[in-house]
Amino acid sequence: MIEFTPEVANTVITTASYVAAGAAMMAGMGPGIGMGFAAGKATSAVRRQPEARGPIITTMLLGQVISASTGIYSLVIAIFLIYGI
Amino acid sequence: MNPGPQIQFYLFGNELFPITDTLIVGWVSVIIILLGAKYLTSQLSIRPNGKQNIAEFMIELIYQQIEPMLPGEGWRFLPFIATIFIYIGVGNLIGVVPGVTSPTGDLNTTLGLALVVFIVVQYEGMREYGVWGYIKGFAEPVIFLLPINVIGELAKPISHSFRLFGNIVGGGIIITLIYQAAPALIPVPLHAWFGVFVGAIQALIFGMVAIAYISVAKS
């Protein structure tokens, strides 16, 4: 069994946490797709009913905010990985 | 490059009370809001003049966001929601000034605001259904969902605070990187986007989500 010195082990852990932070931010794809989908649907809804523009935009923003939560959680994990080590 | 708040000095020379740059900018934005409110409401009259029109326009704009989601209670929640809107709006927009850090780019500020919203949401839920009735609401429709509902409730202030914090800090990091690569002219449209547009949208969203959480707790 190979014994690592503490310096080597720390370097490996730091490198791995940076790589993992980058990988965690790949979760940004999902909210991006979802929010764009919601915006597209809202655009067609405004096109169908231009007089309901205000409520449609409010509803769209609220839905986008809730679906953006997953991206926020990945950001939290990435920040913990970078600054928490 | 540490994007977090930088400690400027210690209050009373005591290490227990660090004063960060975001805290100082937060105080400055509070003073700006106070002076602005004093100025806009200095000459109130039945027939509004220019300054009073601006104040009434802002208040009615915020009122129109609250009233559809909390019917009949717009005026009751107006002071709380308007405080959130105006403080976060000023705090985000003050970051456009070069060299000034937004107070909302600090997790302490956003988590404090989100915890205040969280407490108000719990209070309103208990006021609507009674303490026991509100707690019992977490165990519906079946008792097995109790842990999931509690975790979902506790995740609200976390996502609420990190949303604002992440947007402001992310924009700040991108602008800092661009400044190191191209210090002249190129960062200007980025300031317009991340500072003005994202700042205004995030202030609106923080207040809207607070209204939505209160409305969910009461329904």
Automatic annotation (TrEMBL), chain A:
UniProt GO molecular function: lipid binding; proton-transporting ATP synthase activity, rotational mechanism
Cellular component terms (Gene Ontology): plasma membrane; proton-transporting ATP synthase complex; proton-transporting two-sector ATPase complex, proton-transporting domain
Biological role stated in the UniProt entry: F(1)F(0) ATP synthase produces ATP from ADP in the presence of a proton or sodium gradient. F-type ATPases consist of two structural domains, F(1) containing the extramembraneous catalytic core and F(0) containing the membrane proton channel, linked together by a central stalk and a peripheral stalk. During catalysis, ATP synthesis in the catalytic domain of F(1) is coupled via a rotary mechanism of the central stalk subunits to proton translocation. Key component of the F(0) channel; it plays a direct role in translocation across the membrane. A homomeric c-ring of between 10-14 subunits forms the central stalk rotor element with the F(1) delta and epsilon subunits.
Compartments (UniProt record): Cell membrane; Membrane
SUPFAM superfamilies the UniProt entry points to: F1F0 ATP synthase subunit C
Entry protein name: ATP synthase subunit c
Domain spans labelled V-ATPase proteolipid subunit C-like: 20-81
UniProtKB/TrEMBL annotation, chain B:
Subcellular location: Cell membrane; Membrane
Signal peptide stretch: none
A cellular-component GO term for this protein: plasma membrane
Family matches, as Gene3D superfamilies: ATP synthase, F0 complex, subunit A
Transmembrane segments: 16-37, 77-100, 107-125, 131-152, 164-186, 192-216
Swiss-Prot/TrEMBL keywords: ATP synthesis, Cell membrane, CF(0), Hydrogen ion transport, Ion transport, Membrane, Transmembrane, Transmembrane helix, Transport
Kinase found in the keyword field: no
Membrane topology designation: Multi-pass membrane protein
Entry-linked PANTHER family: ATP SYNTHASE SUBUNIT A, CHLOROPLASTIC
Record's protein name: ATP synthase subunit a
